[in-house]
Design a protein that fits this description.
The structure holds 2 protein chains of 2 kinds. By secondary structure, chain A is mostly helical. Chain A is built from 16 helices and no strands. The mean pLDDT of chain A is 96. Chain B has 16 helices and 8 strands. In chain B, the strands form 4 sheets. Chain B has a two-stranded antiparallel ribbon. In chain B, strands 3-4 form a two-stranded antiparallel ribbon. The longest helix of chain B has 14 residues, at 37-50. Chain B is globular. Classes of the chains: A mainly alpha, B mainly alpha. At the A-B interface, helix 2, helix 4, helix 6, helix 8 and helix 10 of A face helix 2, helix 4 and helix 11 of B.
Chain lengths: 304, 366
Amino acid sequence: MSSIENFIDQPIWDDVEPIPQDDGPDPLAPIAYSHDYSRAMDLFRAITRKKELSERALKLTETIIELNPAHYTVWNYRQQILTAIDYDLNEELNFVDSCAEQNPKNYQVWHHRQIVVDKLNDSSRELPFINGILDDDSKNYHAWSYRQWIIKRFNLWKGELTFVSSLLEKDVRNNSAWNQRYFYIFNNPEEVTEGIINSEIEYAIEKIRLTPHNISPWNYIKGVIEKSGKSIEILENICKELQNADIRSPHLLGSLVDIYENRARAGSNKDKQEAIKICTLLADEHDIIRKKYWEYRKHAIAAY
Amino acid sequence: MATHPSPAEFAREKHVSYLKTCLEILPHEYESSDTNRMTFAYFCLSGLELLDVLDSTLTPERRRVWIDWIYAQQILPNLDKPAENEQLCGFRGSPFSGSKFDVNGVRDAQLPVDAANLAMTYTALCCLLLLKDDLSRVNRPAIINALQYLQNEDGSFSQTYQSMESDIRFVYCACAISYILNDFSGFNVAKVLDYIKKSQTYDYGIAQSPDQESHGGSTYCAISALRILNRIDEGLLSKDKTIFWCLSRQISGFQGRPNKPPDTCYSFWIGGALKLLGAFDLIDFDSNRTFLLTTQSRHGGFSKWPPELNRFAEWIKYPSDLLHTYMGIAALSLMREPGLVDLDPAINISKRTIDRLINESVFWRE
């Protein structure tokens, strides 16, 4: 007998009249519920009708969440119970820890954690917890979203750049980590100086040299250049350097198209021809899946 | 090495029977989608419509009882004290709260157990249209009025009243609902534009909320919302760069984020976004189609990923599911796969259903 079955069939529920779901005569897309889920929900319907906020109701929500962690109404009711019975929120975090480990991509678990930690007003467990989740999946969207909230809410900027750098050391293609780097640089309370911008540009160039076919540092460097009001022309050196080393990454060639197109727009025929030539290379050899795009770019540039 | 197990052809009949089966009874694993049941009904109905068999599948009697079932999920203003639950109006995803089944809807809704959900209101309206209802029993003023309570200060929307789950997905739902009901007076459009602008990232994709990573699903939601509002040029910081971001996600099929593997659903999310941006013809049709066909399951339906070789050189297939089945079919419809009905990429139902909305529903006829 499972522990769930055990709990929902115990005599402590004898005073509760279960309320079955009324799905009408011919329901649309009915779900083949398990016995346990139906029974637990029948009890849930009954106790919410009575507005019972008790220990056993808390345990019941735990049972349902185990079967259906996306049941936002059950989570919401659980939050009411926690407040009503003044439940130990550190104990609650233990529960959320195990829920999140089993369902790391579930919205409700993360929102619940946010509510609990906000109330607890203590972030000490949070970064180690998030790091554990990111260890398993370093691109978990919910984990990154929560991480941004926790950093802002508790002013945990210190150490974040080191953390992000360590993730990029492990996997330089982790776009989530690059995004977090951008978030850190432009949102932390420190002033964004020219020195910081230059060092970020250097950092990205170093990673581009390491993996010229990796789109993430290319996007990052362009983002930093644009945000800081610099010109994309500053990428010409690294592009030429890689080109001379016989590297033909679509991101490198695409960046050259952008640079030459700017100059073509300003009237340079030489750059116009160069841009057209690279578009052809991209369309025919180096980025064939986007052939139609590069041909479209080529025609647009030719029309200047 | 074992031969690749995926059929090279679109297994139309298998998808039809998969969707018909799910419509009658959703397998046990959908228990965890109990609160979103309406969405899964929508995947079945809209999928069968795109496969051009919905009409022939349903008798008028079946349509009638299912229309009634959907109206039984409508949360209506309390008759005596409408102000008490006006924030909760709209549709819920299923009758899990325990109220009595009533084809006239729910009049005594209370938080937290009974509240409408924006995604469920959107998919309920789509289901009604797919079942050829004229929306005459939809309480438009109540739904439009509730939107103001669901929009947050930053412009985003919460899925239910007072929920923390608020992001660009529900911005899209609010726009699609307002379009279907032909009434945009329920929310602040300027704030929506601001929120969408702030959710654009340094690579010009769009994130689920500001500062997060750009993502195919949220990019679709934002662009579709802008298209419905007729504000694409105003809402995008650079339409060209967003188009390039979308095109850059194609690696055979489409990935949802840079450096992630391709996944069936992004052929729709990103394909739909590109269609709305007028740049869909720039994708590589053949690679996309080939990828999608490899994600078909032997038993009907699509899975998230194509089969993978394990270390014993055996092909491991991923199971199909309703979301990826619907998105796979919708993605193929965008490419005009023979035998599929044309899709309206903004509302995500067939174009002929949109025609019926405009010509026959009570809110457009007036």
